[in-house]
Design goal:
Strand content of chain A: 35-45%
Strand content of chain B: 5-15%
Oligomer: heterodimer
Strand order of the largest sheet of chain B: 3-4-5-2-1-7
Helix content of chain B: 40-55%
Pfam families (chain A): Adap_comp_sub, Clat_adaptor_s
Largest interface: A-B, 111 and 97 residues
Membrane topology (chain A): Peripheral membrane protein
Structural class of chain B: alpha+beta
Shape of chain A: globular
Mean pLDDT of chain A: 77
Number of helices of chain B: 40
Shape of chain B: flat
Keywords (chain A): Coated pit, Endosome, Golgi apparatus, Membrane, Protein transport, Transport
Largest sheet of chain A: 7 strands, mixed
Protein name (chain A): AP-4 complex subunit mu-1
Helix content of chain A: 10-25%
Subcellular location (chain A): Early endosome; Golgi apparatus, trans-Golgi network membrane; Membrane, Coated pit
Number of helices of chain A: 8
Structural class of chain A: alpha+beta
Chain lengths: ~425, ~1000
């Protein structure tokens, strides 16, 4: 059972501290922080113990979310609870960062009070908690150039008014203030994570796509939402129907609230989303990408014994367009290539040559795999798309619906 | 999730602008918000008291909000206690709640003042609003003032019988709080727990088990009666409760059921034997092993937890996984694999703990995770500790078949930038090489190549691993030792290892070893301590084997060591000198010097670090820490003999009450998918009920009141009918068919109704549970004749819920038509002296939207239920001796027998008993002989014993039925005859 819960900033400031059972010392917080910082390595172990007190922590939003326990609690329960706590904090406070936690002390304290009683987790469901939580979230409305740019010259509508900024989805779910009260918005994200291993001969050795459809809902009243996916969406091999550009995934799992009665025939997900963020559907595809991997790298290693260089350096770069930039970051051992514009149907290429001094022939063995990390907006590797997003009954007034697609690299490795 | 850093548009650069904008906003910067508020509070803290004492609700509320804000930040607000406590009686719920928060925080410090509020709570406990009742109890129990223990006790007891499940749940939570305040109350609290365990609400179930686990985990006997209920409720308990219940049930099951594993082992052994050996041996083996029949309750637990593997709560998934690991037969455990692998896509903290558990599991059961080997490939983005765990698992999974794939993966890992990980990979390679002898050479060569790596950790690790590998087979690898002797490695540990290797195997490299010693002598003074120690060792070993060449060198090194700064080295030098250099004083030991220094050393066993973790229950903190955490409860070993199963039987009245409350009859039945659907449906209904109860506490009262009323009325009616049938029990075949009315609402297509044959005269022989046979439905009404309504019946062979002395018949109605059917009932009692109770009309059936256009009350169909004689029996357990004795009494007229030719497939023992059991509801009598099968049962109507005996002789068999009732005997004989002689 949980003895204490506390939230620390990355610098070790106490943001929230709550003791549930009064069995642990108050200095546990500082003990924990010492332990976390004393450890070398990129990430400290999830479970640490000091005397008979055990700390379990997760890191989210740059904060340490820590629970301590004296008994033999299931670590999964505690980790899951901390993750839920972080998610709920995000839902209620808007965004998850030191500042928002600082400003919403009272709200988080109240949340904790309702979620945990004497160290026992009672509920973490937004729908239930909504009835109990009285405190209102405090948000700072950031000044944004972006808001200004939404209004074109002389009030004309610009193209940008058709898009919402990324921060649009980071406001608290429960705001009664009039300025935001009218905004009935719903955000749908299709996020895919790509892990790919390409062999030294350019052959795709392993390709996995993990995707999910996330919904962040601000609609105060629960109305039914229908999300239409591609009609040719199929699960598993058996469902492939004839020719055509089928969108195939291997496995698919849904949130328990999703009703699937129209899924089999029309590929429509029906759901009454509760306020806050939730993952409606998770899917994965392994080993068979419907399209070519988005990035290709052709590595060659040459031995040049007459080296003139003493330091690792980017020898030459050839970029296909002048507005792109590339730089070598020695600290991260990485090359950063930024592409400001990428028109559809285009292909971009770049050639980089890096000189590494004092590489003996034996140590050529050490040249490890190259890994790439990227973020591709408006693109899904499986081809999954949302055909429509309908709310029924149609909300009076402005209910805005937003959809976005992102593909991340999870682990994109090219072996040499 | 970094997805949020991306705009919902092309303009992903906007983020930066927004960030900038935030920074430039002066009023809302971090410090400004928190401390700005606080600094203004400083002034206003004075007026907080006034605000709290004002008459305006809004002012009070405002003040309380600020006070709670102070608490949240850890500021002291205790001086406001008197002013706050006054508001505890406020009518405003919002204000009240804030006061409660304050009270819980400060009550322990200000006990006297806190007592002022107690009476308010006592009043609030009687409030009509369940939320207020619950929160009053919660706060009252959180006030840690010893004086109010009796009040708390009383409040908990009262709340435990509250009509609102939410209040009862709170009462369950209060139990452990009171227990920690005053452990002397345990006895009373256990009583409350016992009462709450009986509760049918899903809300309460989780909480009361939490209390049970903290207060009295040793009172496993409290669970017996609630076991089946908990299993069935499990799906609908909220997720945190599920975790606790599953863990508790795991412990429970380990004490109550016999192990499904031992039998498995025997079974496997047998099949292997059958494969290799002759048939005689096979028969012998079959005779030795009693077939393992899993307790139906054990099966129930496994079956009901399985769907939870799909839960989105990782804690639930893991607890089900550990349940399967600890309880399921070995061949069923693999169902959890996929779910565990799915958890690997979760947060990295979850990944870490899941991988730890998989590592432990993969040591014992390689096959379970082998198909998912790819999931454990290391990704470039993984953190180091996750990478090492994955390595561990891959190493555990390695076998002759997949080793080449795994080694290829390892080759890339060695090149990783993360050197700690590369070093761990080398260790993993070493472990694979020792485990799988075919690849030892390949691994060694690969490792030798790594010795020229630039990174010293990699080199050091390689040397250490090579050393361990060479120890297992040094003779073939003198060239590797030579190669290593030539190496000049910068890492001290690696150099020390090389020196040790050369010393240990100096006989394999007789020419190089002295030279190495010479070189080391040159640099001795500037070496690290660990290298010096090994140099001394090498010198000593060479002195013993090759003293001609190395005598002077050794003395030189020993002299250097004598004046070393480190006392370890001085000690070692002195010891070695006394040991190897013969002089007058130390004759005794130097004789043995050779045997001491050059003793053959056992090769190190490279084994997993997770080897010993399986002593802890999976998924617990103790397992993660690899040490016992406080409050860890050991899983007991399986009992040798299963404790009495009947302790879990629930009385009839209880079952009926479940019925009426869930508005739908639900029975536990093996693998009956329709029933499962029905069951989930019934819970839906049930849940919505309890929600209603939450909203309106009073309303629920009438509901449950009527529920219990109908239960009791049914009870009395069944009692009545049984007494009635008791009177005409002598007339034997006269059975009274008693049809129970069941109110059924809104069930889509399937309706189950139970008929009961009332039996008389309890038989003294112990009735055993029926052997499970597949359901054989019989047609009662075809859908064509029934104009859309189809009915089937079968004999579920379950003990009748109305009493042990009845047999149940299950009717299944299907509405194939497109109209709703209403008011289905049996209108007339029919034929052959059997009377039928009238149905109470069944509410409606079919699509609930279209209400009764055609009523089945307008249609009449005559139907008949024809029970096979075998279904009118109840299985009985008896020993072989009892059987023969009873059989001896029933000879002559009472015996009917026949010889039958059996189909060849039926010859072995299993099919015979299966066939007999499928025809008649009889119990198997354990038999000592392989070719004799005995079955016993009693007749339901009169309780007369029916004994069946099958004696097999090659392909023919002698079938004997002994019973007082000759008609039944001959009918049964005929049915068995046809069943046994037909092919399976």
């Amino acid at each position: 059972m949980i003895s204490q819960v506390f939230i620390l900033s990355s610098k070790g400031d106490h943001l929230i501290y709550k003791d549930f059972r009064g069995e642990a010392d108050k200095d546990a917080v500082s003990v924990f922080f010492e332990m976390v910082t004393a450890l070398s390595g990129d990430q400290p172990p999830v479970v640490m113990s000091h005397k008979d007190l055990n700390f379990i922590h997760v890191r989210q939003g740059g904060l340490y979310w820590v629970a301590s326990t004296k008994t033999n609690a299931s670590p999964f329960t505690v980790i899951e609870f901390l993750n839920r706590l972080a998610a709920l904090t995000k839902d209620y406070c808007g965004s998850l960062c030191e500042k928002s936690v600082r400003m919403n002390f009272a709200l988080i304290y109240e949340l904790l009070d309702e979620m945990v009683d004497y160290g026992y987790i009672q509920t973490t469901s937004t729908d239930i908690l909504k009835n109990f939580i009285q405190t209102e979230a405090v948000t700072s409305k950031p000044f944004s150039l972006f808001d200004l740019s939404n209004v074109g010259l002389f009030g004309a509508e610009t193209q940008q008014s058709k898009v919402a900024p990324s921060t649009a989805a980071t406001r608290p779910i429960m705001s009664h203030r009039s300025e935001q009260g009218g905004k009935n918005e719903i955000f749908v994200d299709v996020v895919e994570r790509l892990s790919v291993v390409i062999g030294s001969n350019g052959v795709l050795m392993k390709a996995d796509v993990e995707g999910e459809i996330r919904v962040k809902c601000y609609l105060p009243t629960c109305s039914e939402m229908r999300i239409g996916l591609n009609e040719e969406f199929s699960i598993g091999r058996s469902q492939l129907r004839g020719y055509g550009t089928a969108v195939r995934v291997d496995e698919c799992s849904f949130h328990q609230a999703v009703k699937l009665d129209e899924f089999d025939t029309y590929r429509i997900l029906k759901v009454c989303p509760s306020q806050g963020e939730q993952t409606l559907m998770q899917y994965q595809l392994s080993d068979e990408l419907p399209c070519a991997p988005p990035f290709r790298l052709f590595p060659t290693v040459e031995k040049d014994y007459g080296s003139r260089y003493t330091d690792c350096d980017l020898l030459s770069q050839e970029l296909s367009s002048p507005d792109q930039t590339a730089e070598l970051q020695l600290k991260n051992k990485a090359i950063l290539w930024s592409i400001p514009r990428f028109p559809g149907g285009a292909q971009l290429s770049a050639l980089f040559k890096v000189e590494v001094p004092s590489l003996s022939s034996a140590s050529l063995l050490e040249v490890g795999p190259v890994s790439m990390s990227f973020e591709l907006p408006k693109q899904t590797c499986t081809g999954l798309q949302i055909r429509f997003l309908r709310l029924s009954p149609t909300q009076p007034g402005m209910s805005q619906r937003w959809v976005r697609y992102v593909t991340h690299s999870d682990s994109y490795t090219i072996r040499i | 999730m970094s997805a949020n850093s991306l705009a919902y548009s092309e303009q992903s650069g906007a983020e930066a602008a927004v960030e900038l904008g935030q920074e430039t906003t002066p009023t809302s910067s971090a410090g400004g918000a928190a401390f700005g508020l606080f600094s203004t509070d400083f002034k206003k803290n004075e007026d907080l008291k006034e605000m709290l004492e004002s008459t305006k609700e809004s002012l009070k509320l405002e003040a309380m909000k600020r006070v709670v804000g102070l608490i949240a930040r850890g500021k002291n607000a205790s001086e406001l206690f008197p002013a706050v406590v006054k508001n505890v009686a406020s009518k405003n719920i919002e204000l009240k709640k804030l006061v409660y928060v304050y009270l819980v925080r400060y009550a322990e410090e200000q006990q006297d003042l806190a007592l002022l509020s107690i009476s308010t709570f006592q009043r609030a406990l009687k409030d009509p609003n369940q939320l207020i009742r619950a929160s009053a109890l919660r706060v009252l129990s959180s006030i840690r003032v010893p004086i109010i223990v009796p009040i708390m006790m009383l409040a908990i007891k009262e709340a435990a019988t509250d009509l609102s499940p939410y209040v009862r749940k709170t009462a369950a939570h209060a139990i452990q709080k009171l227990y920690s305040l005053d452990p002397d109350q345990k006895e009373h609290l256990v009583e409350v727990i016992e009462k709450l365990l009986k509760d049918k609400s899903t809300l309460v179930a989780g909480s009361v088990v939490m209390a049970f686990e903290e207060v009295c985990p040793e009172r496993i006997d409290l669970i017996h009666k609630n076991y089946r209920k908990l299993c069935n409720l499990l799906m609908d308990v909220e997720e945190w409760g599920q975790v606790v219940i599953i863990n508790m049930l795991t412990r429970y099951a380990r004490t109550q059921f016999v192990s499904p594993w031992r039998q498995d082992g025997v079974f496997e052994e047998n099949s292997e034997k059958a494969f290799y050996d002759s048939d005689e041996e096979k028969k012998e083996g079959a005779a030795q092993t009693k077939p393992y029949v899993m307790d139906p309750d054990h099966r129930l637990l496994l079956r009901n937890t399985k769907p939870l593997l799909q839960s989105r709560n990782t804690a639930v998934v893991m607890s089900v996984a550990q349940l399967y690991w600890h309880l399921a037969p070995k061949h069923e455990v693999s169902v959890v694999t996929k779910s565990l692998v799915r958890l690997l896509r979760s947060h990295r903290e979850v990944q870490y703990v899941v991988l730890q558990n998989i590592a432990t599991m993969s040591i014992q059961r390689k096959g379970m995770f082998e198909p998912f080997m790819k999931s454990f490939y290391v990704r470039s983005t993984d953190a180091t500790h996750i990478k090492t765990l994955k390595l561990e698992i891959l190493t555990n999974l390695a076998n002759e078949a997949n080793i080449s794939t795994i080694l290829r993966e390892f080759q890339t890992y060695v090149k990783s930038q993360d050197k700690a990980f590369a070093a761990a990979t080398i260790q993993a390679i070493g472990r694979c090489a020792t485990n799988i002898s075919e690849i030892t050479d390949a691994c060694l060569n690969g490792l030798v190549l790594l010795l020229s790596n630039r990174d010293e950790t990699v080199v050091a690790e390689s040397v250490v691993v090579i050393k361990k590998l060479l120890q297992t087979q040094p003779s073939q690898h003198s060239d590797i030792i030579k190669h290593m002797a030539k190496l000049r490695v910068p890492v001290p540990m690696a150099r020390a290892s090389i020196l040790w290797l050369i010393g240990e195997y100096c006989e394999h490299v007789p020419r190089i070893a002295p030279d190495v010693l010479r070189k080391m002598a040159k640099t001795f003074t500037s070496e690290e301590d660990i290298v010096k120690l090994q140099t001394v060792n090498l010198a000593a070993k060479l002195y013993l084997t090759n003293s001609k060449q190395t005598k002077l060198l050794t003395q030189y090194i020993l002299n250097l060591g004598k004046y070393d700064q480190n006392y370890d080295i001085r000690d070692r030098t002195r010891f070695i000198r006394q040991l190897i250099v013969p002089n007058e004083k130390s004759g005794a030991l130097s004789k043995y010097a050779r045997r001491i220094l050059l003793a053959p050393k056992p090769a190190p066993v490279l084994q997993s670090a997770f080897k010993d973790r399986d002593r802890f229950q999976l998924g617990t903190l103790s397992h993660t820490l690899n040490s016992k955490a406080t409050g860890y409860l050991e899983l007991s070993d399986w009992p040798d003999v299963a404790p009495d199963q009947s302790v879990r039987n629930v009385e009839v009245v209880e079952a009926v009450r479940i019925n009426t409350r869930s508005d739908c009859y639900y029975r536990r039945d093996e693998d009956h998918s329709e029933e499962k659907r029905l069951c989930s449906h019934s819970y839906l209904v049930f849940c919505s009920r309890s929600d209603e109860g939450q909203k309106n506490g009073r309303l629920e009262k009438s509901g449950s009141g009527s529920g219990s009323a109908s239960a009791s009325s049914e009870e009395s009616s069944s009692a009545e009918s049984s007494s009635e049938s008791g009177s005409d029990s002598d007339s034997g075949t006269d059975q009274k068919r008693n049809t129970k009315p069941k109110p059924i609402k809104k069930v889509r297509d399937v309706i189950h109704v139970v008929h009961c044959f009332c039996l008389s005269r309890l038989f003294p022989v112990q009735v055993s549970s029926p052997v499970f046979v597949p359901v054989r439905p019989h047609e009662l009404l075809h859908r064509m004749t029934g104009k859309g309504l189809a009915a089937q019946y079968h004999f579920p062979r379950q003990p009748c819920i109305y009493g042990d002395h009845m047999v149940s018949v299950q009717l299944t109605f299907n509405n194939h038509g497109d109209h709703a059917l209403e008011d289905i009932h049996i209108s007339e009692k029919t034929s052959t002296g059997q009377s039928i109770h009238c149905f109470r009309p069944i509410g409606e059936s079919g699509s609930a939207a279209v209400l009764g256009r055609t009523c089945s009350k307008t249609e009449r169909f005559s139907v008949s239920i024809q029970p096979a004689v075998g279904e009118l029996l109840l299985p009985v357990t008896m020993t072989e001796q009892d059987f023969s004795r009873e059989q001896g009494k029933l000879v002559g007229m009472n015996e009917s027998s026949a010889t039958i030719t059996m189909a060849p497939e039926t010859v072995s023992s299993q099919p015979v008993s299966k066939k007999v059991v499928s025809v008649a509801n009889v119990g198997v009598v354990p038999s000592g002989q392989d070719n004799v099968h005995r079955f016993a049962a009693k007749l339901v109507s009169s309780g007369t014993l029916v004994l069946v005996c099958v004696v097999q002789k090659d392909s023919s068999a002698q079938l004997t039925v002994n019973t007082e009732r000759t008609v039944v005997g001959s009918m049964l004989l005929r049915e068995l005859q046809t069943a046994l002689s037909s092919a399976p």
